[in-house]
Amino acid sequence: MTRRVLLVLFLAWSFIMASFKTISQTKSPLKIACVGNSITYGSGMSNRENNAYPVQLQNILGDHYLVKNFGVSGKTLLKKGDHPYWETDAYKNALQFKPDVLYIKLGTNDSKSQNRIYLSEFESNYEELIANFKNQNSNIRIVILLPLPSFLDDSTSIWNPVIKDKIIPKLQKIAYKTNVEVIDLYQLFIDRSDLLPDKIHPSSLGATVIANRLYENLMLNESPSLNITQNKLIRNKKESNFYGYPLTDFKFNEWNCKIVKPKKVAQGNPWVIRARFWGHEPQTDIALLERGFHIAYCDISNLYGGKEAVKRWNKFYHFMEKQDLSKKVVLEGMSRGGLIIYNWAAKNKKKVACIYADAPVLDGKSWPGGFGKGKGYPVGWEEFKQVYKLKNKRAKFKGDPIHQTKKIVKGKYPMMHVCGEADQVVPIDENTRLFEKEIEKEGGNIQVIYKEGVDHHPHSLKNPTPIVKFILRSTNQMINFAAHPAPGSEYRSAAGWKKGRGWWAQMNDIDSLCMHSNKIDLLLIGNSITQGWGGSRTLTTYKPGQKAANNYFKDIKWINAGISGDRTQHVAWRIKNGNYEKCDPDFTTLAIGVNNFRDNTVEEIVEGIKLDIELIKSKLPNTKILLFGPLPTGIKAISDRREKYNDIHKLITKLNDDQNVTYHNILNLFVDKNNDLKKDLYSSDGIHLIPKGYNVWATYINNLINN
Questions:
Q1: Which one of 340, 480, 539, 702 is CB 3.0 to 4.6 Å from 552, fit for a cystine?
Q2: Averaged pLDDT score across all residues of the chain
Q3: pTM over 0.85
């Protein structure tokens, strides 16, 4: 090849790459339309311009996305409703927008008495709406949002029984028929009436729940669709609707089996084998389908987790895994399903991602035997004896999960149990509580949710979020919001803010101080504990640390950048989008993380703190960062909160680089000889400092910046 040819090829390649770069840089943002009623519009919440869920979604997504709010208060999906969405300018504008992704949140107002009479036309009207948007963009991605529950008592108004029993089933039928996605917002709020102040509309924090859920939906890492049911070994196929998803009943090796296919398959092809009681309390299964999991079932009725049941599941698993489903499967078992999931897991430890057991049977003598406090099940006990070839005396029988904890722990998979504390069928003291103790003794990973005052039924949780998060974390499908910059959305009178001044006002107040201070000595970043320093902030009222600041910071220039309720993600947003670099601080303190305790794991919180550090380094390259992480918390030395605090600090000590970042654990300054928090330094919640506590912290900071 001549030199001239090589030159021509090089120039051509350079031109192509430059063109590609130009195209990629000028690529239009993904257009997202949020169509809906007052809940989409943001009615009733503080600062809807910043806090309505479409706006929050835009802020989380960033510049490569364009989210538009086409919500209109009071509107119905029904064309014959009292205020049809069809007649609004918002509807026309949404069509003209030609979105790439469409979220439809309609149906709530259709539950009113004057609109219910037309519900027979609901499905046809909704399908027409979907078709109209598809006509504008044939590649559009459409997602139906199920209505939130209503907590109103007025049966003539927005009425929850109509939403739950009529409108939601219709929406799921539409999703199945039109093959569009569906997100169950109803279950996310069914136990969170506190997020619906007027019993219908979400607060700004409720809107955050919706925005985060839509973000998860958009960010789903997708794998190619699987055609499992096309395999020739599957016979007698019959498809039906499973809450909006295609369910296939089939025969495999003459066994009755089922599989439900998600609309989009998550990366890694995660899946669940459910044991027993198919379709009972399905909220966890529905939530996992939304997130790209397949849900499978292989009938092992009346086999009580015995050898035959394990053999069936071995063959079923092998077949499913060969269809490209994940090599590690989630096991889900309710009641007697506990026998098979744990007996199978004990023999297949490398094939298990995690186990979710709900009021599980773990000892046959407890159930069906009934030899303890439980009622027992005589017919089942006879079947159980046949399965395990037992006589009446069972002293030497070790085939139950309760006797296999050492084998189970060797699998190193996490386990979650959900149990009623008042269970009279499968008593927890003979099953889960004893099992939990043995698993922990062997160093296993188990967490249990005990439902106070609840018997064997109902299974699961009304809101399955804790279960879903457990499974997502166990399968590496969880999005860590603690490490993703997002603005706050709180407005709380108890936050120490002046009336009418919410999170955005607080952020702007801090920004204004930074922009009008050319050079300062100290910038204090954090949550309510930091906010308590007071200072020159104009929109805060609660300042327990003001006297300490006046005494110890009197000779330096400092700015208080603490906002009550802030989590690691909110600090990240403020640093990234604020103007803190304008004040060019010599020192910056970072005390953050305690508000993440409820929603995030230790590792997730540490990732959030790490992100905050990196952003501070980027925006404030000349500052020295004094890393405190979460301040000491947990009144008692032996408490869940203190344990989490200690675990976080074991990890964030690694962020110390002895240059820009120095790590400080000041627990020893705030505890007594028993390692309990000192009552004269802390408020009764074991989180917030009182004035004397600020003196201790101020002394420590003052020594750092003066030495």
A1: 702
A2: 94
A3: yes
